[in-house]
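Tokens in:
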């Protein structure tokens, strides 16, 4: 197995180069974990295991960054087989963490080698199958876009890698193509794009009452869902928020907005019993990148059924 980033077929900053850098760290941690007795060196074992657990960031980058680009090229195998293998290791790490919490050192010692072997196996498949094929299938513009999106997920590395941009032209060409895509198919948002129809459907479908009051304390938006908690009508648009609440509560609402405007608070939460339902009401201050106050979002939700939830119901059980 080759874990030397110096012999990587790509330059520093390329997502695959970063994956190889992480392999160097992973192999080092696996060797340390193998050489550490969980009962005799409990804290050391746990520290190594915790650092190894950041491999979750690597899994997430592959699942949410690399795999989607491979799917666009018609290669769906990694999204099925390798993702499933990730989940197997996630379950192994969850069990190891439980063994540690239960002080079950016998099980820790017995089960740790399974995780270690699986991670080595994963690295080998990545190096011999996943990355070579991905480098053949994907173009530089794909890797550039992928690199730009990885920061939101993160890396195992202590220092973030440099961005991958091969040259100025590549970056400009990609931006031009991206702008064209948004112009033809919808509005460019911070993440992705949507058409006006899709935006309206989104706000109509989400099971929340949303109202947006701008920095001038006027209502500029509300969503029209199938079942609203509180009644709204088009006449509210442009109305001052102080006229949208009963006299007994308007003072509190204005106080919240004043504290938001001054930067003293960013969120206020309440819950009330209303027509046999438990209603959760939250106010969120809206600020731009320079932290200038841009208004407030009021969100109301019927949480009666949510509050009654206990235990767990996993995704695979949804139809039961």
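Residues out:
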């Amino acid at each position: 197995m080759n874990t030397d980033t110096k012999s990587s077929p790509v330059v520093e900053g390329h997502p695959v180069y970063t994956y190889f850098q992480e392999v160097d760290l992973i192999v080092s941690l696996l060797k340390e974990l193998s050489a550490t007795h969980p009962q005799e060196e409990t804290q050391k074992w746990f520290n190594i295991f915790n650092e190894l657990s950041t491999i979750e960031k690597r899994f997430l980058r592959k699942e949410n960054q690399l795999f989607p680009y491979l799917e666009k090229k018609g290669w769906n195998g990694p999204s099925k087989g390798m993702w499933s293998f990730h989940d197997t290791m996630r379950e192994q790490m969850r069990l190891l963490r439980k063994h540690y919490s239960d002080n079950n050192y016998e099980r820790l010692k017995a089960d740790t080698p399974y995780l270690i072997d699986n991670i080595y196996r994963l690295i080998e498949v990545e190096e011999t199958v996943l990355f070579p094929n991905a480098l053949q299938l994907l173009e530089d513009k794909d890797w550039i876009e992928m690199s730009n999106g990885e920061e939101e997920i993160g890396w195992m590395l202590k220092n973030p890698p440099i961005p991958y941009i091969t040259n100025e032209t590549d970056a400009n060409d990609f931006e031009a193509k991206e702008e064209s895509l948004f112009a033809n198919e919808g509005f460019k948002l911070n993440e992705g794009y949507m058409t006006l129809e899709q935006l309206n459907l989104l706000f109509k479908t989400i099971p929340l009452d949303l109202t947006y009051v701008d920095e001038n304390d006027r209502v500029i938006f509300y969503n029209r869902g199938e079942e609203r908690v509180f009644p709204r009508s088009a006449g509210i648009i442009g109305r001052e928020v102080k006229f949208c609440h009963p006299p007994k509560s308007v003072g509190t609402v204005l106080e919240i907005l004043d504290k938001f405007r001054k930067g003293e608070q960013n969120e206020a939460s309440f819950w009330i019993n209303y027509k046999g339902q438990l209603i959760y009401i939250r106010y969120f201050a809206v600020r731009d990148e320079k932290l200038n106050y841009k208004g407030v979002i009021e969100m109301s939700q019927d949480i009666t059924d949510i509050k009654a939830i206990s235990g767990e119901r996993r995704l695979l059980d949804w139809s039961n």
